[in-house]
Amino acid sequence: MEKKIEELRKEFRAEVGNAKNFEEIETIRIKYFGKKGGFTTLLREIGGLPAEQRKDIGKIINESSGEATRLFEERKKEIIEQTEEPGCAKDAVDISLPGKKFKTGRKHPITQVMDEAKDIFVSMGFQVVDGPEVETSYYNFQALNIPENHPARDMWNSLYLDKDILLRTHTSPVQIRVMEKRKPPIAIIAPGKCYRRDAIDASHSPMFHQIEGLLVDKNVTFGDLKGVLEAFVKKMFDKDAKLRLRPSYFPFTEPSAEVDIGCVMCEGKGCPVCKKTGWLEIMGAGMVHPEVFKHVKYDTREYNGFAFGMGIERIAMLKYGIDDIRLFFENDMRFLKQF
Ligand code: FA5
Q1: Is 172 in the pocket of ligand 1 (CB under 6 A)?
Q2: DSSP string, 197-261
Q3: Tens of pLDDT, residues 215-232
Q4: What residue owns the CA closest to ligand 1's atom 21?
């Protein structure tokens, strides 16, 4: 009996070591561990052994069978690993594991307000246009009725790149570029960055964003301008938002106005943000000056229009109750994550 066990053991070891694929390992399983397999039969025979042999022979059979099972499993695992394709069982995704939470990006609050403002004007029929940030002094000043050496140039602390080339101080030059190319009626908005040599404080930044608006048609009135701005402010803030137009001066509009909205920080009571006035200036506006139309060869007897230029940072500050413009540019994630 012991000899028979030893022969089976040897035969098994040789065969299992040579198995190269699933088919061969399966043949071995059936041959040795199947219903009529070598080790299965031996184990079954333990019960029929004479009582005095059962203990010792039984132990040898159990050990041989246990060893054979272990060698069989090891070889099977090796064959699986050799034949496995990447992405299959070994690298498979455990779908029962909780998923990783992805950090989603979001738009900068200024971009969000910019997008919202654009949507409001587009819904009123304005078309969005673009213009260069590096401008010639002709478009930034002369064509807007601000001749060279005119004191009004002091209103815009400009950053010059060359004698006649500067970073645009406002989005108003886009008005000229559009009117040069098109005939009325025109209703456009021009969003974008502006640059000024302004001292940095809670409400001033050397780079900021404006949205320019221009509407040219027949019989346009100051009432139309006020109506458009009121509709904008009520949609951007809420229907009870207060709007105030103060007489002002811009060389390219006549009459001109500075547009304020009631300070949402202190609800008009007066605070450091509104410099205790209860109002915050958000834009300049007015009826397009006839001199501007002359530069683009529009017939002023037939056409007139209005224009406005609003500061997006100021609008975002009012909308979200932010009391310092610098927060928009510091890229502090604790601040940006709130929007
Ligand atoms: C202008 O820039 C005119 N081009 C606006 C205009 C357009 C008037 C068309 C009439 C017709 P002003 O310099 O006031 O105007 O600037 C307009 C707005 O830009 C201001 O109300 C303010 O909201 C914003 N702004 C101006 N300077 C800064 C700055 N340094 N930082 C942040 N916002 C600013």
Answers
A1: yes
A2: -PPPBTTB-SEEEEEEEEEEESS--HHHHHHHHHHHHHHHS-TT--EEEEEEEETTEEEEEEEEE
A3: 999 999 999 999 999 999
A4: 283
